[in-house]
Each structure stands twice: as C-alpha cells, then as structure tokens.
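Troubleshooting log. The previous structure file for this entry was overwritten by mistake, so regenerating from the original sequence record. Sequence copied from the archived sheet and checked twice against the printout by T.R.
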Amino acid sequence: MVRSLLISLVLTAAGSALGAAEMFPLNPGSVWEYRAEGGQSLVIKTGLTQLYSEGRTYARLTGYVDEPVWARLNEAGNLVYLDEETRNEHVLTSFERPSPGWYEAPLRGCAQESRPHSDVSYAGPTGRLEGVMPVRYRNFSCADAGLEVELFAANVGMVSRTVTTLAGPMEYKLAYADTGSVQLALRRAVTLRLALEPQGKDAILATMRLTGDPDVAPKIELASSQEVEAVLRDATGRVVWRWSDGRVFLPATMTRQAFNLSWEMEIPLGAGADRLPAGQYTVEAWLNTVGPEPRYRTMADLTVEPEAVAARTVRPLRARSRQ
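Regenerated output below.
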C-alpha cells in the first residue's frame, strides 16, 4: 500500500524560515524512516531523554551508526558523539566545507572515511529538495559492504543513504521524517484507477489508468509480455470472465516506468441465452508484476441490467481503487 501524503515541502539549504540550518536536527523524539527496493527498511530515532555533560546537551541517537550514541551538533555544525568512557567528543559525520580532507567515520562496521561535497538537487519519495549536501565515503577494509554516500538536507537530516552490497549499490530513501519542526511523508507515487464504459448493449470497455509523479514514480517489473490481467466476478465471487483466456504471451520479463500508462480491455456480456444474468458484478484488474502477489490492483462495481433494457444495459456503480 502507498502511504497518503501528510506534508510535502520544497526546502533550500538556507532554511531561513526555520532558523539556523542544521544538517542533522536532533530534537527529542525525532524519527526518520527509509525504504529501499526489495522491501528493506531503516529507522533512525532520537530518544526523549537528553544527556547534559559539561554544559553540553546530547540526544540519544539510534539507527544511524552501528550502536546508539549520545550525539549533538557542535559549534562547527558537525555531528559529534560522546565517548562514554573517556568523556571525549569525536566527529561522527562532518558537514564542514570546504573540507580540509577526509575524516574518520567511526562506528560503521569497518574502517571508513567521509568527506562532504558540493550541494546537489535531490528528488525522492518525499518530494524535491534543493541544496542537498552529499557526504561521500571511502573504505579500506570493507568487502562488498560499507557506505557509499549519504545525502543531507538542511533542517531535515539524512534523506538518502547508498550502501554497498553483494548485489550492487542499494539506496535507502527517506519515506517519512518528523523532526519536531519539519514533517515530511511519502508522496503518492502511483495512482491506479479503473473506468467502465458501455459499448452498446453487448460489452463494456474497462480502461485501467496508472498515473505517477515523474519525480518518484517507481519502475515496475512485469512477469511477462502480459502486462495486465482482469476478471469479472459475480455476486458470489465466482470468476465468470478472464481477460487472458485464449491469449498467448511471451515469458520474458519487462520493465516499465510507472508514469501515465493505460490499458483497455473489452468485457463481452453476450447475447440471448449466452448473456450474463442480470445482477451485480465486480471488475477486478491488476498489473502482472513479478512476485507472488500483484503490487498494483484496482476494482470497480457494475450492474448488468436485463437485455431488454438496452439503454441501461451496463450501469457502473462506484469505483473502488486499491493498491
């Protein structure tokens, strides 16, 4: 299911409306949720309890590095953490530019260094962001593991993290953030609707339309040259018609961008003794995506009138979209 839009903002690095820009705001109770293709997720949080030490205030940060840390933004705007044994501060992530060089990137599983780079634009599931700072990583002992790059937006925090895996780079994209002063949520990347239109008195035309935001619309992997499937169910749920019956498809998988696509399927009602009985039916249509269950599905109800009522043979009721 695609989450509903809560708030979607376009932010700049200046962040003048929100006060001094912070690349990693650490307000108590903040949360950032990320999603990657394949279903992997990442959650970063700050606790409600704060630590006060030597006149400094620290937030309990979990999920960002391999272990929870007491962290704060220092006077240079860098993310630092407190070593609880030595009571010394160490840089966790540097946002200082121009960067004098590479910084040690501790608590990340293997020996890595990081360095901030020039601002870029970024379009992700929560919208388009300007003035985004990339922090790039290099490593010396990570085999098919480790960080490649993280992207940070002022007053939002990390909006993207790309990691190295055996299968290649994997990007975790921000799907939800609540920092106390800024709230972002997943934009509706895809909308799928089904429209029914009578074709005389013997058929109806089912048109399935998929519209998407070009900034965030995902790529859809289809299981074969059969891009869609549709069925007609009677009031008991029994399938009385299936669009793919009698058709032949190639087994090769296909990939399409989920952006302004449409498909038309004609549903025959029959005539005379072969006509569908009058009553209520449901048209169910979906994309034939790879995997055990279709990822995009929609439905519409309709009423089939007796054949004698030619002008009202098919009367669509309410449309119900479900993804």
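Residues 1-19, 310-323 have pLDDT under 50 and may be disordered. Archived copy saved in two places this time.
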